Amino acid sequence: MLQVQPHYALAGLNTFGMQVYAARYATFDREEELAGLQQEPAAAAGILVLGGGSNMLFTGDVPQLVVHNRIKGIVKLREDGQHVWLQVGAGEIWHELVLYAVAAGYAGIENLSLIPGTVGAAPIQNIGAYGVEAKDVIEAVRYYDIASGAFTVLGNEDCRFAYRDSIFKRELKNKVIITAVTFRLNKIPVFNTSYGNIQQELDAMGVTELSIRAISDAVIRIRSSKLPDPREIGNAGSFFKNPEVDTDLYLALKAQYPTIPGYALPGHITKIPAGWLIEQCGWKGYRKDNYGVHKLQALVLVNYGGASGQDIADLSLTIMNSVAERFGIQLEREVQII
Ligand SMILES: Cc1cc2nc3c(=O)[nH]c(=O)nc-3n(C[C@H](O)[C@H](O)[C@H](O)COP(=O)(O)OP(=O)(O)OC[C@H]3O[C@@H](n4cnc5c(N)ncnc54)[C@H](O)[C@@H]3O)c2cc1C
Predict the structure, then answer these.
(1) Any idea where this protein resides (predicted)?
(2) Which domain covers residue 44, as residue numbers?
């Protein structure tokens, strides 16, 4: 049975720092507490699952019942000579799982160090950074189906992972509550230092022998120097996805804008950094009143304090329109607008 609280302040529970209220709010730290959730009178206006609030922009008070996932626990299910399988409670903090894996010598998620949020949200947008995505290590996702009250386990293939995408952002959006994720990590590490400036950072750190910890430390150093800390400036990381376009369109743009960066993907597709497109449109460092675009990261929209979520959502649309007008590319938001 959930302990539901009315008119609950969400200001400290979202990294944009939006000062909004949930009409009703409850936390849960055991799967059993979810039984009969659909029948709760408080759920009549719908249910919103909250993890770390680091991929959300609240544009106003939330009429739904906000259920805050706090299910903890890391259980080693099994291991063989090469791999270890961990079942992790969805309310565990993602970076704490990374630190646990680093300390235990389990490889696979060290490149994903310092990504904010919970383990349960990691499969939703298939979090990724520095050449690694959550889908590379997720074996299965366990969820509670709100309508039926049943628990289901989906295997990796059935999660339909793609770049910042999965079945949880599509058919199952707002219909399920992820309660646990099973990861298969490597006891024999395969290091990935080719992406971004990891190697450069390792060199600067004087690392001569690669290790899981060295890579995690390098990623932490790079991220801390590049991304605004939400405790200081409200933000939700990259606000937009990097668009993947037909390579013919990319080449046509390259003829016109020779410095446009692009990364070739299979299937005649090229990924273009959204930050570059936004910067070219003159938005980097833009500020209006108490919100704007970060001065170092054109991909990051920020709340300098007391901004309204609607103003930031409107700014994101204006940016999308200006990129579409100039480059003929429709940006997509990565952040969930609530
Ligand atoms: C500074 C900063 C840097 C970031 N860098 C990266 C990065 O490098 N790569 C990256 O991929 N992301 C990045 N992000 C985005 C964010 O960290 C991830 O999307 C993260 O997975 C969100 O986790 P959360 O628990 O905060 O989710 P929330 O923001 O609480 O929720 C996000 C969405 O998932 C749903 N949800 C959450 N938990 C559950 C659950 N248990 N069951 C069902 N639905 C659920 C919510 O309803 C919502 O729709 C960054 C964010 C910030 C602030």
Answers:
(1) Cytoplasm
(2) 5-69
Atom of ligand 1 nearest to the CA of 122: 21
Q: For atom 20 of ligand 1, which residue has the closest CA? A: 117
DSSP, collapsed to helix, strand or coil, labels residue 168 as: helix
- Please list the helix, strand and coil fractions of the chain in percent, rounded to the nearest 5, in that order: 30, 30, 40
Judgement on whether residues 131 and 198 belong to the same structural domain of the protein:
yes
Beta-sheet pairing, 291-293 with 287-288: antiparallel
Identify whether residues 81 and 148 lie together within a single domain. Answer: yes
Claim to verify: residue 240 and residue 320 sit in the same structural domain: yes
The reply to whether 223 belongs to the active site is: no
**Catalytic residue list contains 142:** no
| Nearest-CA residue for atom 4 of ligand 1 | 237
Q: Would the CB of 64 count as within 6 Å of ligand 1?
A: no
Helix (H) or strand (E) holding 321: helix 309-327
| Each residue's pLDDT expressed in tens, for the chain with a length of 338 residues | 789 999 999 999 999 999 999 999 999 999 999 998 988 888 889 999 999 999 999 999 999 999 999 999 999 999 999 999 999 999 999 999 999 999 999 999 999 999 999 999 999 999 999 999 999 999 999 999 999 999 999 999 999 999 999 999 999 999 999 999 999 999 999 999 988 799 999 999 999 999 999 999 999 999 999 899 999 999 999 999 999 999 999 999 999 999 999 999 999 999 999 999 999 999 999 999 999 999 999 999 999 999 999 999 999 999 999 999 999 999 999 999 99
Residue 284 is part of a domain; what is its CATH number? 3.90.78.10
Tokens 């990924």, residue located: 271
Residue 304 Cα to ligand 1 midpoint, Å, equals 21
Let me know whether 24 and 54 are in one domain: yes
- Distance (Å, rounded) from C-alpha 4 to C-alpha 223? 37
- Asked about 225 being catalytic, the answer comes back as no
